[in-house]
Amino acid sequence: MGEVDFNMKLEERIRELIRDYRLIEEGELVAVALSGGKDSLLVLHVLTALRDDFGFDIVAITVDEGIRDYREKGLDAARYNTKLLGVELVEKSFKEEFDFSLDEVYGIFKSPCIPCGVFRRHILNRTARSLGADKIATGHNMDDEIQSFMMSLVRGDTRKFSKFGPKLEVIHPKLIPRIKPLWNTSEKETKKWAILNNIRVHLEDCPYSSLSLRSRVKKFLNRIELKRPGTKDLIMKSFIKTFKIEQEDVELFECEVCGEPASMGTCKACELLSVIRGSL
């Protein structure tokens, strides 16, 4: 398949997903969570190409976690591509928001991915809301979705099943719903897109990723896919067919410390901040 045919097929699949699941409504502002990696850049480029057709607008948000010799490359790719496409880029950082970098605090936790994920989501949601965004578009692809599903299955955490799917509905006025335009696009395809189109992109893996359960699940699934091509597609189809993508009723409160949405009296970000400040 040539470059033009590949791009057209990929864009059409994302267009159909947006239309079929009503990921974006006319007149909405979509905040793209932009890391500078291949997945989030594909979301940025395709949504920029589709925004006139669907009648929405875009802004991009990037979060610098403070990972030396890694994040700077992603920031460079994010800045270059947003300037190229004429999309506003809002830059935030752990240092600016919390007065520490991930490098400075990761050792307090069993896995660096725990504070990184919590604080990134906290900053993205708060920033998107301040910008008046209606949706946050993330670069989660089909591989990510399968990995998350398998991790929840192994842990017996069936509550997480309601979070799978290409779209999360509004469950709290302060919580901006997430959409996943790459929900049925594989990681292999996003990498092929970046290489074929000579995109300035950050392709390196996070230096902390090898410490996570997700990394081990990813390697396991990739080994199976190598031996039996098409396995990931079958898992995804089985998941869609077997599990109802319905969100359970969740009662959310407002954090007693920061006022952000929380499932308990204190949100996870403030809970981790308390642990970090008590350890520094």
From TrEMBL:
Gene Ontology cellular-component annotations: cytosolic tRNA wobble base thiouridylase complex
Lineage: superkingdom: Archaea
Residue ranges of the TM segments: none
Q: Give the record's GO biological process terms.
A: tRNA wobble position uridine thiolation
Any coiled-coil ranges, and where? Answer: none
* Record PANTHER family: ATPASES OF THE PP SUPERFAMILY-RELATED (PTHR11807), CYTOPLASMIC TRNA 2-THIOLATION PROTEIN 1 (PTHR11807:SF12)
The protein in question is named: TIGR00269 family protein
- To which species is this protein native? Methanothermobacter tenebrarum
